[in-house]
Known about the structure:
Order of helices and strands: EHEHHEHEHEHEHHEEEEHEH
Oligomer: single chain
Helix content: 25-40%
Structural class: alpha/beta
Low-confidence stretches: none
Shape: elongated
Strand order of the largest sheet: 2-1-3-4-5-11
Number of helices: 10
Number of strands: 11
Amino acid sequence: MAEMGLVVVGAAGRMGRMLVKAVAETDGCILVGALERPGSIALGEDAGLLAGAGRAGVLISDDPAAAFAQADGVIDFSAPDATAAYAALAAEAHIVHVVGTTGLSDTHFAALREAAERTRIVQSGNMSLGVNLLAGLVRKVAATLGEEFDIEVLEMHHRMKVDAPSGTALLLGEAAAEGRGVALGERSVRSRDGHTGARRPGDIGFATLRGGTVVGEHSVIFAGPAERIELTHRAEDRALFARGAVKAALWALDKQPGYYTMADVLGLRDL
Length: 271
């Protein structure tokens, strides 16, 4: 069986280099393309050497169409507008598009779903097994407990993170909303300041912390009458997200066009 040819977007960045290394260390796939924005000082560099994974023979370029033409899939942890553009190109090339980009708006999600009519899109706010298992547990607990249990999502990331709440926090909030049978957009509380009044029953609250070099910590708190349940995940190494993304690409290779998540990849959909 031929190895799956993968392109890494943002190959010179911190996450991109981890992705390049994860591809090199994973059986069944090979790096065939590496992309950076026009004007990047990394253009022309060997992506493998830059990632510390040894010479890959793949030079970093700014031409996604050419890279996609020789690939089976692309792994993308870039920016929302760029991800929407890459989705359209991936659909034209009929290659797998794994999306780990966070901060996506409804418009960006619509672009991904449109692309998924022609190719395989795997999107998740977090690519780790632990977080997606946590989301399944959150969905189950939310479905079991009534509105007398208030739901709060607490997250902390490093000081350089640009979006809030994080994609993982929103993933967990969506899981809670699904368990309750409500729309997160109608019941979420993103900030509290001043005289807010009493908490409305059934709301799903978010609290965001930023500082230091924290990779990612997430807790979902179910606070009820005289008792509290807390479900927590702590990421200790960003490499776990890269490994999960590569796993997702390999999983999607033989699937039909459609919009998938890590719950599908990991077989957690029914949890």
